[in-house]
Amino acid sequence: MSASMRFEMPAKLKVTAIALMAIGLVLGIASFVLYSDTPSRVWSGLLINNFYFLCLGIAGAIFMSIGYVAHAGWNIVQKRIMEAMAVYMPIGLLGMVIIGLFGMGHLYEWSIQDIVDNDKVLQAKAWFLNKGMFFGLSLFALLVWSGLQYLLRRHSLAEDTEGGTKRFWASYKVSATFMVLWGFSFCAAIFMWIMSLEPHWYSTIFAVYVFSSVFTLGFVFLNIAGIYLKGLGVFPWFNTNHMHDNSKFVFAFCIFWGYIFVSQLLLIWYANVPEETPYYLLRWGRSSEGFQLRWLWYLNVVLNFGAPFLVFMTRESKRQIKTVMLVSVMLLAAKWIDLYLMIAPGPAKFALHTAHAAGDHAHHAYIGFGLPEIGFFLFFAGLFILVVGHALSKAPLVAKHHPYLMESLEHHV
Amino acid sequence: MSSTLINRTPCVVGVFDDDDVFLDACKKLKSKNLKVLDTFTPFPIHGIEKVLDVPRSNLAIAAFMFGTFGFIVGVALQVGLAGFDWPNNFGGKPPVAIPAFVPIIFELTILCASLGMVATYFFRSSLMPGFEPKIYDRHATSHHFVVLVEKTPGMRGEIIEIVKNAGAIEVRDDEYLEQNAPFPLPIKMI
Amino acid sequence: MIEAPIREPLILGRKSYQEISNDIIGPIEAKPSKAWFAAFTLSALVLLFYVTGVAITLFEGIGVWGLQRTIGWGFDITNFVFWVGIGHAGTLISAVLLLFRQHWRTSINRSAEAMTIFAVVCAGQFPLIHAGRPWLGYWIPPLPNDLGPLWPNFNSPLAWDVFAISTYLIVSLVFWFCGLIPDFGLIRDRTNKKIPKFIYGFFSLGWTGSLKQWNRFELVSLILAGMATPLVLSVHTIVSFDFATSLIPGWHTTIFPPYFVAGAIFSGFGMVHTLLIVVRKVMKLESYITINHLEQMAKIIMVTGTMVGIAYMTEFFMAAYSGYEYEFFIFANRAFGPYSWAYWIMMSCNVFSPQVYWFKKARTTPIFMFIISIFVNIGMWFERFVIIVTSLHRDFLVSSWAMYTPTFIEVSILLGSFGLFFTLFFLFAKFMPMVAVAEVKATYKITQRGKDKNQLNGRGMISDARFDHDYTYSSDKFKRKTIEEALAETHDH
Q1: DSSP-derived secondary structure for C142-165
Q2: Domain B6-54+134-179 carries which CATH code?
Q3: For the whole model, what pTM was predicted?
Q4: Superfamily covering domain C17-143+154-490
Q5: ipTM score of complex
């Protein structure tokens, strides 16, 4: 096995990805037509799936930066996968801008001037909840986050030919800058993109909650990609020990997710403040909108916390490809459900209220699981596979001159 | 403290002063099919479990069992006392307010799991206050690495030779492995 | 296991295993130095403030404090949260850094764990004294009693606190003790004096360092670390619930749990810095607790300080964003009201001062780090003061608005609690190994290999070419290995 060996996207994968994109695109466009009575549903489907894959992109970026800042050694063999994930990040961020440009009126209540004029709470929030802020934050993320990641990628590729530690220390500085700028703007962006879907509601922990999911998703994908590439025979350096440590992180961040989940729920449940409880009541079917997501909500806790916690408790389960793949696929679904529960009810409630205000009391499928959710998932999944696969094939699969590569190759748990 | 004598096995004691040399010696002994009864080292030697085929300890299972016990105690305590023995209305919450019980359930789970596991560890490793163990080398807790090799009949000279050649600074062959237990229990029971 | 040459060696100079034992155990066997006596006497004197303050409080009742109907929590709960926070770094260093395989923890984990335990001991005093009648403390746990079926309110965060703090104290103590057993065994085997041999022998529980003992020791440490990590998080989370479950503006906010945990790590590392910068000089441990160690901690202080900063900003942002005027009033009042001096002390000490650690020079100058660590301690004390007092002093009813002035007794209890903490710490420094000897030895070669051509083996002799740049431990001997060779070897370990 030599380090110059490269990954070339197998034709099968390429065709699958393009097929997924094509089917997704057709279904997505069809859903705009078929769900023309509830465009908010289509846009929230787009938002959920775009954000889902954006999370994977962000995960790649922060893993790489945290790795540099913390001098991580064990995971350097997977560094190129993280880089490839980060390459997808600008596309997801561009997706946020596009959603803002064309779907804002269907998703975000605060973007409709008539509503704000009659709503004191929204008026008080207008200094933050406005179009300028939305696009400002999204463009900041697009330019600054992606720009710094582009620098990291360039250093990493240059290191392959140059060697030495100069590029490492340069990346170290870029990473530290990225972590600080990202940390502050990520919180604001999450409040903007996701929390403001229910603009009357607020929770200070919300960004941390999303962050815990980003982390889990990232490690899940690293495992899947590592196992896949190893199966192709091009990535022999990824071994049980790396999978074990990735799985440990999955385990840890599932617990962390549970911790943040309970913290938010417990505090809101305990204080029972009318400003805060509607978030849960809407999902439990206890509000006038009548959305019944209670069982999905329970399932969400089981899949995101209970199941991975119990399965990954033993050492052996984290070292067997079968169980790791099982938990990974389960978590991919679980995190999607988590995002769905976060995003879908808000725009649905907004659409229902708008319809009622206009005197339309007919039954519409404001919320559900169907064409828009599935179609856009397929589209973005195909796009993600294509972009990440292409980025992976652009460079050797190991960063040969990374000073910590040896630690990673000789890593055993 | 009086201790119950369980077992006396004649053995050769080899003393080393470097961990790498010591580990290599263990490998050599193993490759010659000699039985290493025990080792005494100042710190855990990385990789020795593989060389001497030490099975992974099952203490994790003990921790899990004790943790489950703590979890059940936490649930039973709170649901029993607050839900059934004397139900109260605190701030309009139901008497069995599950989210509010989470913290104490969690704490009791961790408490029972760690105390139970450490108690099992002490019990299994014959760690008891006041227990006076047999010391094979005074520096075995500081900078000497001691290996005890079983003396198979007729092999005495050969064993001493192997241990010496492996780099031992001291070899004694009139020793016994004495397995003491601070309490009269067969040590292999658990 | 190997370490990349780019990592700095953890221990300075050439040491044999025997020298490591001598360096760390020596001060315990020798007569205490004058510096130690001076420091110990001073802390014991400061402890007298505590004893006096508590005695007066118990004799007279807590009316001697500056608390009133509006501000029912003052110095006492501030001190409680402050000390609990300090008590987080120790277990964090031992547990989280162990899980992350950070070898640099081995030089500092022992003293940090000791610090944790003493800090929690200090913390536990305050709610008990505040309750007024500590001798009725047994009313708190759910003990069967003859007062009718009278049980604690399990819905109360104060009851959760009792479980959390006591679990934390017990588990930290067990964790600490488990690590101390091999080192007690070492002291037992070194000494010939009868009394120390008996005492250290008693607490070493008959440790021999046998194969099975070490095998289980490592697993126990790992599992304890795995359980202590969520425990650390839970403890300060539950402390934050004391505030966040209420309806008081400035207290009820969902970010409190992770924000308190970040703050606790921050303040804990601040205190570890304060202690170790002094102790490494006094106990002559500079080659074990190196500038490199201090720099790592400085980085953690900077990161957690910035995280605390994000939390402050999030709170402030959400107070403005929510459009909830009482909430916003409290935050504006914090920054610009009568207690704004406390707020700005907090801000500048916690958020701004650690930012100097962006400069390498600041991270590697001990005296500078010492000053910043004092700022961190002050800042974190004021953070709790700001949270508690500024939120309480402007009640919902304007007629209830009040100001809080601590009495001399409260100040002397606070001062005295530092005396208690340092007295315990100096006793520890004299009678127990400050550095985990066995763990330092276990990581010594791993962290030294390949970094200096003149490195030593455990015997204290200059070794041959074994210790060189790229090499790894292969099946039966050391051999050099290049990256290309390592890449070519693709076995699953």
Answers
A1: ----SSSS----TT-HHHHHHHHH
A2: 3.30.70.260
A3: 0.93
A4: Formate dehydrogenase/DMSO reductase domain (1.20.1630.10)
A5: 0.90
